[in-house]
TrEMBL record:
PROSITE patterns: PROKAR_LIPOPROTEIN (PS51257). It comes from Pseudosulfitobacter pseudonitzschiae. This is Dihydroxy-acid dehydratase.
Length: 198
């Protein structure tokens, strides 16, 4: 079996967003962690997910299940899903993140569930169906604080993916807790593979 080839269960929207190459393997090895915000934040992936290096910017990253990005042994039973991570600099006097404030800021959608852990708030939302065909209108989104940076999160999946259920909230919380811990630890070496061939 060609481990880099997308399986039939991965819909066109997942293929496009995760960078899966239909006819071949992923062109660059995925990452488990990477520096963002000019090195001031270290993003650490949750279990079974990897960071698509081709998506990386100083303030944005896309994560997908590791086997869809070329690491066949890294999925660990994780659900098919896509995670987006965005960073913004938060002023020192910014109000704390609360579920009430996040719900008030929703421009569309109904909140189905919520989780609050430390200074992270996660909402399960049923809203407008995403533009990417095949992705469910139900998803998780959230926000958290890592040092001076506010992190916006979302996880998307198909209607039959565990990513849109309670597991999706757990996955985002794990990402935040790992990233927070690493942000408080001096980074001496980052697990970033070279982007050019040897």
């Amino acid at each position: 079996m060609n481990i880099g080839t997308c399986k039939g269960a991965i819909l066109a929207g997942l293929i496009a967003l995760a960078g899966c190459d239909v006819g071949g393997g992923a062109t660059n090895a995925p990452l488990r962690e990477t520096a963002m915000a000019n090195g001031s934040v270290t993003l650490v992936a949750p279990d079974g997910f990897c960071i698509d290096r081709r998506s990386l910017k100083a303030d944005f990253a896309l994560l997908a299940r590791c086997d869809t990005l070329g690491d066949p042994d890294g999925a660990f039973g994780a659900p098919l899903g896509l995670i987006t991570v965005s960073l913004t600099r938060s002023p020192a006097d910014a109000p704390p993140i609360t579920a009430t404030a996040m719900q008030a800021a929703l421009s569309d959608g109904t909140v189905l569930d919520k989780k609050e852990t430390r200074d992270t708030v996660l909402l399960q939302v049923q809203g407008t169906e995403p533009a990417r065909k095949g992705l469910s209108a139900t998803h998780w989104r959230g926000a958290g604080q890592v040092g001076p940076h506010r992190i916006g999160l979302a996880i998307y999946g198909t209607d039959d993916s565990g990513a849109i259920g309670s597991e999706g909230g757990r996955i985002l919380d794990q990402l935040m807790q790992r990233t927070r811990v690493r942000a408080a630890t001096p980074v001496t070496a980052l697990a970033i593979a070279p982007t050019t061939p040897d």
